[in-house]
Structures are given as structure tokens and as C-alpha cells.
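Private note to self, pasted from the team thread so I don't lose it. C-alpha cells:
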């Protein structure tokens, strides 16, 4: 199988704990039970993304502040979503969103979604990350490339999202060889349209490819018409129990 490579197998043997990184549910008014579920004690969460309205929104939202505060009270990191639109957004707009996330929702870091991955774009992304760390020196920074980027990006963030897409692509995906130089807790995989019967296989792929932060769901994007991350997967309890008990290969 393409994902079972020598370098990936070496990375998977480190014993790093697998945890869930939640890309962001629908607004807390639309999905209150799902946000409440995230704060349940013992849920194996690495972090949860807060996306109020394509970012922090235009004004403070008390419902999102309450949801974020409940998670932080449970010891869960909350990351503000910043959309880089693959480098098309201006630095000033991204920084403005970051300040609003910090001022309004007291986020613990940021997911820089739709982050470019080309070598030429690295200096501008490095500039953004350096500035974010200057305004929040403890910020946890995740670069949402959605695919393997130029290796230099790994030196400029806490984590990289190196896969985001459907199960039909993930089950045949290959890990970039350079990722073996880093521990699994540096990489994240988001996979939608994963049937319950393939959940264990998906977990094995993540471990073999050396990704310690994952999010799998049976929700689909309906050909790009819907957001597969906005609702909790139908097998939420199953995946929580598998990760929480450290299911092995």
C-alpha cells in the first residue's frame, strides 16, 4: 500500500499520543450540543478551531466567547482561524483578524488555513508567523497547507496540516520523505467521507505516515457544496474511544 513506507514506519514507532484536532464546528447557536461535547472531560483533544464567520467576524460574538471559554476551562487549546487564501490576502487583513481573535475570544493560537506551500511564498508566511508570535508569544501556530509543502515550512510553525481531503484520496496517499526528520506531533491530517468500517484503517494510515493530530469524519463535502467539518461525525464516540485507549497497529 502506498502509505506504508520505511520512513513513515520509523516515525510511527515513536509512541507519540494521537489526539484530535477539530477543524471547527458550525456556530455554537447552530450546534450547541456538539460544542458542549468537546468540553467533556477525558476527550483526547489537541486543539479546536474557532471560525466565527470566515474568521473572527465583524463584531464580538458572546456565544462564541462562551464556547471558547468553556473549552479553555476544560484545558483545551482554542485556535482562531485565519484564512490566507493561498497567499492572496494582505498581511494587514490577516493581522487584523488575529488581533480580533485575541481581543474578543482570547484564543491560544491560530490555524493559518489555505496556507501556500511553495518555496517562493515561504518568506511572507514566515513574516506572518513571526508577527503572530510577537503579539502572542505563547501562540500555538498551525499551518493549514492541506498537502505536503516545501520542507522549510516545518521550521516556522508548531504543526503543519499535510493532508485535508476525502478518504478516497487518503487511503492511497503517500507521505513525503522529508517528514521523517520530524516527530509525529508536528503533523495533522483531516479526512472526510471516512466510513465507519474503515476507521481503524484510517487511524493506521495516520500512524504509519507519522501524523499525531487527526480528525476523521463520515460527513462529506457533497462535491464541494458543503463543509464536511461543521458537524460532528456520526461515530464520534467510536473515534474518541479508539484514540483515548491508544489503539495500536
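Design output:
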Amino acid at each position: 500500500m502506498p502509505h506504508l513506507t520505511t520512513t513513515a514506519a520509523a516515525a510511527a514507532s515513536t509512541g507519540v499520543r494521537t489526539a484530535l484536532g477539530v477543524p471547527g464546528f458550525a456556530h455554537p447557536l447552530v450546534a450547541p450540543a456538539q460544542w458542549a461535547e468537546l468540553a467533556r472531560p477525558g476527550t483526547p483533544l489537541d486543539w479546536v478551531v474557532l471560525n466565527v464567520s470566515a474568521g473572527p467576524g465583524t463584531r464580538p460574538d458572546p456565544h462564541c466567547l462562551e464556547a471558547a471559554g468553556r473549552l479553555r476551562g476544560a484545558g483545551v487549546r482554542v485556535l482562531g482561524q485565519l484564512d490566507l487564501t493561498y497567499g492572496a490576502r494582505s498581511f494587514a487583513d490577516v493581522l487584523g483578524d488575529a488581533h480580533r481573535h485575541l481581543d474578543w475570544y482570547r484564543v491560544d493560537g491560530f490555524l493559518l488555513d489555505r496556507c501556500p506551500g511553495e518555496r517562493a511564498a515561504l518568506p511572507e508566511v514566515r513574516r506572518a508567523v513571526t508577527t503572530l508570535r510577537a503579539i502572542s508569544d505563547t501562540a500555538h501556530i498551525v499551518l493549514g497547507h492541506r498537502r505536503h509543502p516545501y520542507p522549510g515550512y516545518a521550521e516556522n510553525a508548531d504543526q503543519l496540516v499535510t493532508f485535508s481531503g476525502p478518504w478516497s484520496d487518503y487511503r492511497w496517499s503517500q507521505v513525503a520523505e522529508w517528514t521523517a526528520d520530524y516527530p509525529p506531533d508536528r503533523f495533522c491530517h483531516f479526512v472526510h467521507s471516512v466510513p465507519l468500517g474503515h476507521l481503524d484503517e484510517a487511524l493506521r494510515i495516520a500512524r504509519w505516515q507519522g501524523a499525531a493530530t487527526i480528525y476523521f469524519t463520515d460527513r462529506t463535502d457533497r462535491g464541494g457544496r458543503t463543509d464536511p467539518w461543521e458537524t460532528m461525525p456520526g461515530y464520534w464516540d467510536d473515534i474518541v474511544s479508539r484514540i483515548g485507549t491508544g489503539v495500536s497497529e
